[in-house]
């Protein structure tokens, strides 16, 4: 029984590893190439500020949200 209590925290971390990796991979696609990712979905970005807004809104915000305390 003591072994289970030692392994329980690691079991929950292992279960949460897959959703964490999925939620990390989604915004990194938009941070690397926001224009190409938006164009693949049919979104047209105006030059300059549009690319910055897409980078923050589609990549930076979701990437920072799971790690917010």
Description:
The protein is an all-alpha fold and 69 residues long. The chain has three helices and no strands.
Beta strands, count: 0
Q: Name the poorly predicted regions.
A: none
Number of helices: 3
Shape: rod-shaped
Order of helices and strands: HHH
Rg value: 18 Å
| N-to-C CA distance | 33 Å
| Structural class category | mainly alpha
Query: Main sheet?
Result: none
Query: Beta fraction of the residues?
Result: under 5%
Mean pLDDT: 76
**Helicity level:** over 70%
Short description:
This protein is 78% helix and 0% strand.
Write the layout of secondary structure elements.
Blueprint: H1 2-32, H2 34-40, H3 49-64
Helix pairs in contact: 1-2, 1-3
Task: Fill in the keyword field for this structure.
69 residues
């Amino acid at each position: 029984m003591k072994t289970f209590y030692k392994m329980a925290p690691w079991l929950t971390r292992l279960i949460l590893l897959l959703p964490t990796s999925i939620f990390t991979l989604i915004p990194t696609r938009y941070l690397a190439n926001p224009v190409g990712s938006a164009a693949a979905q049919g979104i047209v970005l105006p030059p300059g500020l549009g690319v910055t807004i897409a980078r923050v809104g589609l990549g930076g915000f979701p990437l920072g949200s799971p790690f917010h305390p």
